[in-house]
């Protein structure tokens, strides 16, 4: 069974959805650990509750991004992590982690990329009065929410849509789609620690 590390910064509803699919045996993976960059983020409570080791790394405690990522990379290697799963991790992945895990880092983003990358994609779509938004799952490269797209699913934006209602629609899709795509990746040889 392959080992995954989930990286998250916030509430962790996607972490929870992935965890539940693992518990139900629908995602055949082992969640080795959670990496979080925000002290006190709710996702760390979810991990504790499930007995999954949670590690908080604050970037400001390190002299450089390379130092910050080198420590994370060491932890991942020690735990034989095969795949990094970004689930609301609001920080750019740098060259240190990319070099170690090239082609083995995936991200989920709440828009139809390349539209509305970066923070608050839902707010951006509403401000642009877009008729459609959605969810993108993609491999990570050095850009912000760029990299080869694996799958996208569309969501219609209603006339009276609010931030909360659109977020709810998007999260329903995210929570189903991300575990499904991860399960698909588990059968690929490229996703394996060398
Ligand atoms: C998710 O909607 C995810 O797509 C988004 O953060 C949210 C995290 O929610 N990611 C990005 O915006 C990445 N640029 P969660 O903490 O409840 O899983």
UniProtKB/TrEMBL annotation:
Active-site residues annotated for this sequence: 109 (proton donor)
Top-rank taxon, per record: Bacteria
EC number: 2.1.2.2
Record site feature (Raises pKa of active site His), residues: 145
Identification of the protein by name: Phosphoribosylglycinamide formyltransferase
Sites where the protein binds N(1)-(5-phospho-beta-D-ribosyl)glycinamide: 12-14
Molecular functions (GO terms): phosphoribosylglycinamide formyltransferase activity
GO CC terms, sorted: cytosol
Residues binding (6R)-10-formyltetrahydrofolate: 65, 90-93, 107
Keyword Transferase included in the entry's annotation: yes
Keyword terms, alphabetized: Purine biosynthesis, Transferase
Similarity section: Belongs to the GART family.
GO biological process: 'de novo' IMP biosynthetic process
Reactions mediated catalytically: N(1)-(5-phospho-beta-D-ribosyl)glycinamide + (6R)-10-formyltetrahydrofolate = N(2)-formyl-N(1)-(5-phospho-beta-D-ribosyl)glycinamide + (6S)-5,6,7,8-tetrahydrofolate + H(+)
UniProt function note: Catalyzes the transfer of a formyl group from 10-formyltetrahydrofolate to 5-phospho-ribosyl-glycinamide (GAR), producing 5-phospho-ribosyl-N-formylglycinamide (FGAR) and tetrahydrofolate.
Formyl transferase N-terminal domain segment(s): 2-181
Pathway: Purine metabolism; IMP biosynthesis via de novo pathway; N(2)-formyl-N(1)-(5-phospho-D-ribosyl)glycinamide from N(1)-(5-phospho-D-ribosyl)glycinamide (10-formyl THF route): step 1/1
